[in-house]
Amino acid sequence: MSLSVKHLLGIKDLQPQDIETIFRTADNFKEILKRSIKKVPTLRDTTIVNLFYENSTRTRISFELAEKRLSADTINFTASGSSVSKGETLIDTAKNILAMKVDMVVMRHSASGAPHFLSKYIDAAIINAGDGTNEHPTQALLDAYSMREQLGDLKNKKIAIIGDIMHSRVALSNIYCLQKLGAKVLVAGPPTLIPKHIKALGVDVTYHVQEALEWCDVANVLRIQLERQNMPLFSSLREYSLYYGINKKMLDSLQKKIIVMHPGPINRGVEINSDVADSEQSIILDQVENGVATRMAVLYLLAGKKDLE
Q1: 8 A C-beta contact, residue 183 and residue 158
Q2: Residues 234 and 265 in one domain
Q3: DSSP state letters, 160-228
Q4: Cα separations (Å) of 216 from 117, 148, 159, 204?
């Protein structure tokens, strides 16, 4: 099995059959992760560098664990404490690392398009672990994989993405991924946090969270990304929580049980209350678990594609 792309730069570049291939491969790796011995020698001769120019916890640990489970040799790079602080460019950093015979690069960068730019200058396969406000493809894949576990086929399922849509790379990748799988997507949040032309992507929009909850089968809740906002877009976190936060009372008022998700990190008491995050309707920890299997699948498939070329 292989993918139609050499790099995973974004969900936008994938075909629906690529996503299904990743999911089937993740199924196999999830079975392996349930065994007493969780490590396989699949990428024993592969060297992978985790090139992170932005802070990360879940994504970085998930990739590192996926790489170790596949027996790859890993190198971890952080911009702080590196020659980047001395003025070294992205291309020079990457070329120096690749001169050490690295096969794959997992990259997170604050600039949208940075992995796409780098892919034009180096031969190694690149996996985008988040670029600015553009895309976060592996998060969308693990989100959709987690939904599929709960709902089966996602065709015509109703997925609401709620929160800071404007600054979220997770939102954009989820929209692309879910639409390729045939799901219906609605975004919800304050008018100041929803892009003006987002309807052009084929999604519906509401500014009322309760309306979104009543419509959906799954609510994927996003945090407020204050670090990406260069001006105040709402008066206070307390006001946001009051009008756009999700609590258990809201879920109990629905005529159905919906699934609640969150890519993390969670701002408890802001976009989601603890009584929701820790409820039986939440699959947040399932997302974390599925992240390892999904990223193992992506690493395995891209390594195989590279070997075939």
Answers
A1: yes
A2: yes
A3: EEES--TT-HHHHHHHHHHHHTT-EEEEES-GGGS-TTGGGGT-EEES-HHHHHHH-SEEEE----GGG
A4: 37, 15, 5, 12
Task: State whether residue 69 is helix, strand or coil.
Answer: helix
Average pLDDT value for residue range 41-51: 94
| Beta-carbon count within 10 A of 145 CB | 23
Domain that holds residue 193: 137-283
Encode pLDDT of 130-139 as tens digits.
999 999 999 9
Question: If you average pLDDT over residues 34-54, what whole number do you get?
Answer: 93
pLDDT in tens, 95-134: 887 788 899 999 999 899 999 998 988 889 999 999 999 9
Bridge partners (DSSP) of residue 236 are: none
Nearest to 139 by CA among 303, 294, 300: 294
Residue of 102, 132, 100, 137 whose CA lies nearest to 117:
132
Q: Indicate whether 73 and 169 sit together in one domain.
A: no
> How far is Cα 15 from Cα 21, in angstroms, rounded to an integer?
10
Q: Specify which residues 47 forms β-bridges with.
A: 73
